[in-house]
Amino acid sequence: MIRVENLHKHFGGFHAVDGATLEIEKGSITGLIGPNGAGKTTLFNVIAGVLPPTSGQVLMEGEDITGLAPHALFSKGLLRTFQVAHEFHSMTVRENLMMVPPGQSGENLWSAWFHGARVREEEARIRARANEVLEFLTIDHIADEKAGQISGGQKKLLELGRTMMTDAKIVFLDEVGAGVNRTLLNTIADAILRLNKEQGYTFVVIEHDMDFIGRICDPVICMAEGKVLAEGTLDEIKANEQVIEAYLGTGLKNKVLKEEGHV
């Protein structure tokens, strides 16, 4: 679905992404792991149009989307969330969801004045869809709370819900588990798995929580120093000597050996 070919992103002399090549299969939940500074978030930003690449190419379903703006990619079904949730603080959780669908009639002053019935009908449909999303994510009990007042984990669920308010094909989730308690993290994992299985969403997930990655992701891609270091199942990644030395470190290496009964 997404193919990245020899992608580079330089900031002066620093090569944040340094010749990365990878492929995201349609219908997969792909994990992207690596140490801080490996280039994961920069790679997301380039694919999602937040940053222009220095060189290289990004293809989506065979179409060259390199350097397209985020709104153009949004219309193609490519969405991206951020490490820090970007909610509208003073609006309710439901209103945050209702803001998402583009081209709403009520945004046009002429329609608001002279086609009120159509605007109200459209708003009712969007509200109904927002309520369905809230129920799906099990956060309908906070629908009328201000988004700025809910917990960090609930904000991550809200961001996931916003992707459900449009025709998403592929969603890039950046550290969805950061600052989230285990109960809500399990809720997020359940929602991702259901969206993948029931609605055909493709996901790419940056995450440091290996239990979370192991539960939902296959394959897993490991980056280091701007390059793709390895790809495979999480077990294969853990057993990869290059990954162990470059990223996971001797601590995890010893843990893996202990689990296998070698130490």
UniProtKB/TrEMBL annotation:
Pfam families: ABC_tran (PF00005), BCA_ABC_TP_C (PF12399). Residues 2-250 form the ABC transporter domain. Keywords: ATP-binding, Nucleotide-binding, Transport. InterPro entries: AAA+_ATPase, ABC_AA/LPS_Transport, ABC_transporter-like_ATP-bd, ABC_transporter-like_CS, BCA_ABC_TP_C, P-loop_NTPase. Gene3D superfamilies: P-loop containing nucleotide triphosphate hydrolases. GO terms for cellular component: plasma membrane. Transmembrane segments: none annotated. It comes from the Bacteria. GO terms for molecular function: ATP binding; ATP hydrolysis activity. PANTHER family: CONSERVED COMPONENT OF ABC TRANSPORTER FOR NATURAL AMINO ACIDS, CONSERVED COMPONENT OF ABC TRANSPORTER FOR NATURAL AMINO ACIDS-RELATED. This is ABC transporter ATP-binding protein.
